[in-house]
């Protein structure tokens, strides 16, 4: 007897659960925009050193100068570097002879260069405006932006509950995300994104727990995977919105302002009755359960649900010590310590590989908007496949296989020549698919491994490790200056190690959600001792 029985008496997976999941999933369409927004708001347009009076200088070459042919004159001002123009240097004196044309020139035949002392000129082919083109920030921007997600609110969640913190996160994201578009400096932009990142964490963690804690055991896999697929739709939507706007300020307004509407309708949510019972608020839990039963068309069960019924079903949980839970509880007992350490590795490695691919779309040499669509579309078959794996193979094997498959694809890319760009891009897309499937597994798996009393603390701890991974991912790209294959070795090695570690986690398929730490300890202890008792 436990909360699962109460939930089944209230209608199981009924009308309330469907509405509840749909309303919680709608914001997920825009969560991809928040996580991957940096690709477009901080995209680096094609650029070169600003050339003062370029029209007048070009006119000195006896050419008639128009907007159309200024680009053809750039080699006289900007040295060639690789397959294009240098992004960081320009000639001190115009080198007209490099154009290879029969023109008179007054420049000097010395190829002395200087840095871009007067700034840069940005092309507007892919972006009309980004934070980079406005304030000339560089690649380290993505590191600072991702760092903002490290601030978590586990203690507040434990104190105020899922619904209150979720509503506050919606409101904070709507206000601060929209106000980001008004930033006039890089510092202001970073501050707003830092605070917005806090609210993004609050939305993701609270929405997941509030969703899964109202879902019966046999429907958790489907709900968890479908919720992840909604996130994938968001990636495709992001590409469409970014392509239609191409201005970072308008893009911020477009993806953040809808959360004002989400905030208004989210008052309909019901607080987690599991959590209310465990924090000694049974009257509120009873009221929410009765509401769920009525919405599910079970008014007779709503009348039968009483405090005595709750106490008989949740006697052990309600009698557990009412101590304040902290992050220390994640490591206090042997089983929780093992689970937390393994999940730390899995979350870090999954995010490390995922964002190493997803947040550097420009490196593939394909239109960035098309690449975003491809990266989003490939997740659909990946997540449908992982739905079958989770249902038939279980959580542990599915998690490990996704990570090991990701590692194998990353390692395979090391041996593909750089001139075979189509094959390299295809393997990168497959790697993104496997890491995305790994994310789908680990969110569901983590929610099932941690008990209700510390589920939010555990999710916050693991998510923090994931943000460390996402912050480290672009930093490791500079290792290609030491050895071109080194970043892939690091990414692949991390996924390989995490795949092996995942086999050390306990299986949770078809098991009720644990409510206390004691439930977790007893469950694993029974699995270990059962064979010897036969």
From TrEMBL:
Q: Membrane-crossing residues?
A: 12-32, 164-180, 186-210, 222-244, 250-268, 339-357, 369-393, 400-416, 422-446, 458-479, 485-505
Q: What is its main location?
A: membrane
Topology relative to the lipid bilayer, per the entry, is:
Multi-pass membrane protein
Q: Sorted alphabetically, which keywords does the UniProt record give? A: Membrane, Transmembrane, Transmembrane helix
Q: Which domain of life is it from?
A: Eukaryota
Stated name of the protein = Solute carrier family 22 member 6
Q: Name one GO molecular function term.
A: transmembrane transporter activity
**Pfam families (alphabetical):** Sugar_tr (PF00083)
Signal peptide residue numbers: none
Q: Can you name the source organism?
A: Electrophorus electricus
Q: Which GO terms describe its cellular component?
A: basal plasma membrane
């Amino acid at each position: 007897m436990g909360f699962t029985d109460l939930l089944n008496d209230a209608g199981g997976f009924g009308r309330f659960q469907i509405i509840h999941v749909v309303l919680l999933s709608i914001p997920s369409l825009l969560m991809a925009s928040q996580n991957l927004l940096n690709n477009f708001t901080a995209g680096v347009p094609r650029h070169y050193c600003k050339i003062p009076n370029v029209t007048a200088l070009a006119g000195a070459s006896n050419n008639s100068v128009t907007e159309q042919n200024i680009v053809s004159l750039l080699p006289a001002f900007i040295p060639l570097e690789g397959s294009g123009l240098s992004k960081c240097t320009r000639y001190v004196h115009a080198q007209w002879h490099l154009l290879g044309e029969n023109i008179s020139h007054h420049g000097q035949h010395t190829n002395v260069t200087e840095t871009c002392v007067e700034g840069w000129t940005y092309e507007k082919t892919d972006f009309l405006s980004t934070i980079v083109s406005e304030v000339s920030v560089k690649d380290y921007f993505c590191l600072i932006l991702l760092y903002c997600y490290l601030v978590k609110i586990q203690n507040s969640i434990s104190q105020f509950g899922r619904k209150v913190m979720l509503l506050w996160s919606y409101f904070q994201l709507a206000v601060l995300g929209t106000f980001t578009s008004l930033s006039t400096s890089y510092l202001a932009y970073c501050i707003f994104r830092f605070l917005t990142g806090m609210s993004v964490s609050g939305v993701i963690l609270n929405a997941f727990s509030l969703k899964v804690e109202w879902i019966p055991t046999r429907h958790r896999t489907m709900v968890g995977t479908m919720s992840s697929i909604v996130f994938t739709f968001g990636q495709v939507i992001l590409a469409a919105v970014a392509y239609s706007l191409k201005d970072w300020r308008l893009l911020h307004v477009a993806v953040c302002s809808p959360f004002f509407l989400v905030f208004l309708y989210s008052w309909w949510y019901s607080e987690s009755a599991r959590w209310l019972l465990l924090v000694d608020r049974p009257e509120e839990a009873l009221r929410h359960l009765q509401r769920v039963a009525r919405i599910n068309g079970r008014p007779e069960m709503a009348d039968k649900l009483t405090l005595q019924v709750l106490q008989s079903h949740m006697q052990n949980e309600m009698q557990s010590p009412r101590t304040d839970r902290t992050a220390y509880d994640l490591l206090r007992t042997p089983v929780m310590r093992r689970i937390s350490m393994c999940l730390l590795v899995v979350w870090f490695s999954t995010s490390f590989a995922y964002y190493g691919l997803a947040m550097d779309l420009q490196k593939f040499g394909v239109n960035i908007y098309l690449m975003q669509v491809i990266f989003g579309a490939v997740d659909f078959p990946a997540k449908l496949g992982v739905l079958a794996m989770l249902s038939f193979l279980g959580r542990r094997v599915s998690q490990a296989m996704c990570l090991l498959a990701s590692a194998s694809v990353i390692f395979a890319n090391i041996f593909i020549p750089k001139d075979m760009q189509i094959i390299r891009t295809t393997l990168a897309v497959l790697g993104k698919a496997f890491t995305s499937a790994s994310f789908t597994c680990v969110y569901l798996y983590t929610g099932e491994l941690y008990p209700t009393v510390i589920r939010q603390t555990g999710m916050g701890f693991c998510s923090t490790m994931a943000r460390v991974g996402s912050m480290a991912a672009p930093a490791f790209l500079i290792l290609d200056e030491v050895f071109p294959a080194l970043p892939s070795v690091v990414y692949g090695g991390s996924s390989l190690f995490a795949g092996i570690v995942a086999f050390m986690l306990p299986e949770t398929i078809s098991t009720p959600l644990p409510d206390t730490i004691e439930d977790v300890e007893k469950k694993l202890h029974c699995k270990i001792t059962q064979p010897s008792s036969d």
